Structures are given as C-alpha cells and as structure tokens.
Amino acid sequence: DPQAIAEELGDLLFVVVNLARHLKVDPENALRAANGKFERRFRFIEDQLRVQGATVAERSLDELDALWDAAKQQGL
Percent of the chain beyond pLDDT 90? Predict the structure, then answer.
C-alpha cells in the first residue's frame, strides 16, 4: 500500500531529524553535505568510466562498487 509506505517513511524521517536535533546537528546541513559527497563520488565514477571508454550501464554492480570504494579511499 503506497499510502502506508509513505506514512512509515515520513515517520522514519521525523525520527532522524529529531535525532539530529538531539545531537545538535543541523539536519539540512548534514543532508547537503551527504549529497555533496555522493555527487563527488559519482563524478569520480563517471570520470573513471569515461577514461575506460565505458558507461555506468555497461558495468556490473560489483565493478561500480569497486569504483565507489576507490572514490572513498581518495577521500571523496
């Protein structure tokens, strides 16, 4: 039931925001930082694939995970 799923997801988001508030972390800044990190890592993957002459669709999930791990190791 999509309505029930949406309600549960809303509850989960509410709990996470309250946890952030309790830990004195601005949840919006935390989300922006996480999005930025994701973008940097995904750009790294795209750049690596471009050098290889490949696309995301042409690589397996394991290969993409390995590139993701390489991005993390580089501090991205």
Answer: 100
Residue 75 phi, psi (nearest 5): 80, 20
Provide the whole-model pTM: 0.81
pLDDT in tens, 31-44: 999 999 999 999 99
Q: What is the DSSP string of 17-34?
A: HHHHHHTT--HHHHHHHH
Burial label for 45, CB within 10 Å (0-12, 13-18, 19+), is buried
